[in-house]
């Protein structure tokens, strides 16, 4: 059950909600104890720890939302100006970095055999004349997207590593 929860995107959310519910339950219980005039050092310490935990959760939540909002604001400004979005995690950044890389460099990076990669690409209807050709030239000659070519090489690397 826990493994299935971790695989979904609700895993971290469920954990955070459980912690939040626990903190609120502790605050409610200790607050009710204060109302019943059952004040002890243990009760007071537990109440303070739960309050600090709640403040930490609020701080982390606020910081994460501020980061998301900042990213969305930057993307919106870039769209209005008609510019590329400058994030290191987007597809354009990856393609820009790969343009001048040769297939031989990729084989060295992934510790793969160049002839095997060339044959694997040929099976997928991507023809490479020379291992020293760069990504841009290979993609243009085969009328493919450079990102698609990158995905095929990664796939071959994963298949090669798992066998």
Structure description:
Helices cover 75% and strands 0% of the residues. The protein has two domains: 2-81, no CATH class; 91-162, no CATH class. It is mainly α and 163 residues long. It has helices at residues 2-7, 10-35, 41-81, 91-98, 103-110, 114-123, 135-141, 146-162. The mean pLDDT is 83. The protein contains eight helices and no strands. The longest helix has 41 residues, at 41-81.
In short:
By secondary structure, the chain is mainly α. The chain has helices at 2-7, 10-35, 41-81, 91-98, 103-110, 114-123, 135-141, 146-162. Helix 2 (10-35) runs antiparallel to helix 3.
Summarize the helix and strand pattern as letters.
HHHHHHHH
Strands, count: 0
Strand count, sense and barrel status of the largest sheet are: none
Overall structural domain count: 2
Distance separating the two termini: 29 Å
Instruction: Kindly name the structural category.
Output: mainly alpha
Can you tell me the overall shape? Answer: elongated
What is the count of DSSP helices, taking H or I runs of 4+ residues? 8
- Strand content bin: under 5%
Helical percent range? over 70%
Contiguous uncertain segments of 5+ residues: none
List the main descriptive attributes of the protein structure presented here.
elongated; 163 residues; single chain; mainly alpha
What is the strand and helix layout of this fold?
Blueprint: H1 2-7, H2 10-35, H3 41-81, H4 91-98, H5 103-110, H6 114-123, H7 135-141, H8 146-162
Helix pairs in contact: 2-3
């Amino acid at each position: 059950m826990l493994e299935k929860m971790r695989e979904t995107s609700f895993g971290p959310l469920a954990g955070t909600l459980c912690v939040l519910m626990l903190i609120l339950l502790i605050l409610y219980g200790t607050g009710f104890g204060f109302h019943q005039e059952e004040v002890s050092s243990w009760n007071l310490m537990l109440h303070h720890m739960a309050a600090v935990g709640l403040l930490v959760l609020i701080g982390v939540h606020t910081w994460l939302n501020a980061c998301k909002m900042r990213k969305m604001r930057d993307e919106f400004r870039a769209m209005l100006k008609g510019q590329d979005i400058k994030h290191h995690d987007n597809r354009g950044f990856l393609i820009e970095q790969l343009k001048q890389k040769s297939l031989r460099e990729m084989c060295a990076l992934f510790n793969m055999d160049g002839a095997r990669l060339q044959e694997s690409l040929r099976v997928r209807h991507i023809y490479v004349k020379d291992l020293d050709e760069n990504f841009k030239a290979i993609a243009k000659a085969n009328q493919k997207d450079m990102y698609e070519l990158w995905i095929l090489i990664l796939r071959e690397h994963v298949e090669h590593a798992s066998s």
